[in-house]
Amino acid sequence: MNATRERPDIRFLTSGDVTAHERAAAERAVQSALAGVTGVTSVQVTLSVVADPSLPRPALAQAIVDLNGRRVRAQAAAPRIDEAIDMLRERLAVRATSPQVS
User: Fold this and answer.
1) What is the pLDDT of residues 17-26, one digit of tens each?
2) Spans of the chain, pLDDT less than 50
3) Which CATH code for domain 10-97?
């Protein structure tokens, strides 16, 4: 396997009021979480903001990563999308480096 092989492109799904800046922040967060992780074959990120002021955590960030045939999923909900993205980065980093539980 070629050690210089680039990571696959991140596929995005968005809903609600998600800006290009927030999408770029999510891309950087996922790349940071997966730094040093080998075997990534696909990455899908979902960013969603619900326009409902009565919800305590209307922003959702989720990532699903195919890691050597194993699906690794992490998500976070928060009052703001930037907070959800930060929590997603932390959770994805933990899950992507944890050994698989049988």
Assistant:
1) 999 999 999 9
2) 1-4, 101-102
3) 3.30.160.100
